[in-house]
Design a protein that fits this description.
- The chain is an all-alpha fold.
- It has seven helices and no strands.
- The longest helix has 29 residues.
- It starts with a helix and ends in a 23-residue tail after the last helix.
- The model has no long low-confidence stretch (mean pLDDT about 90).
Length: about 160
């Protein structure tokens, strides 16, 4: 919420989830279904995308602080603890997967769950790029940044 309000979004609007990009909602639902409907091993294995979080978070935080005057350490407060939490989470998850993925079938299931999580994340990133970068077609009902001019000249 600090990030959202720190960049000027209305708290009630954000909490309402009204403006969530449909693909983001779909991705979240897909990930919830993955961890709810699969084995604990597969759910834990899917979290191994966190292996790269500290590096990515550090790069993004540094870049945002350097390039956007309205971004502050307080705005990005959620991300600071993730730099140390993510490696601990990964250590646990990797140890769990190594211990519990004993058979080739379990190993394939763990790999498939991690692959599915990566696909979910890529689908979300593709949709965000399509809506807000190129070509910039924001679906009806999704958040529209202030000053955005929609394709075709309508805002």
């Amino acid at each position: 919420m600090r990030l959202a309000t720190g960049v000027g979004l209305d708290r009630d609007y954000v909490e309402s989830t009204v403006g969530i990009l449909p693909a983001t909602r779909f991705a979240v639902d897909a990930y919830v279904a993955l961890v709810r409907d699969r084995s604990v091993l597969e759910a834990v294995a899917s979290s191994l995308t966190e292996m790269f979080s500290p590096t990515i978070i550090a790069e993004r935080v540094s870049g945002m602080l350097a390039n956007y005057d309205f971004i502050t350490q307080e705005t990005l407060a959620y991300f600071a603890p993730r730099l140390t939490q993510a490696p601990r989470d990964v250590d646990f998850a990797l140890a769990y997967v190594k211990q519990h993925a004993r058979t080739p079938e379990q190993q394939r299931a763990a790999i498939a769950a991690l692959t599915e999580k990566c696909n979910i994340l890529w689908a979300q990133l593709d949709a965000l790029h399509f809506a807000y970068v190129d070509p910039g077609y924001i679906p009806p009902g999704a958040f529209v940044p202030e000053g955005h001019i929609a394709k075709g000249g309508k805002s």
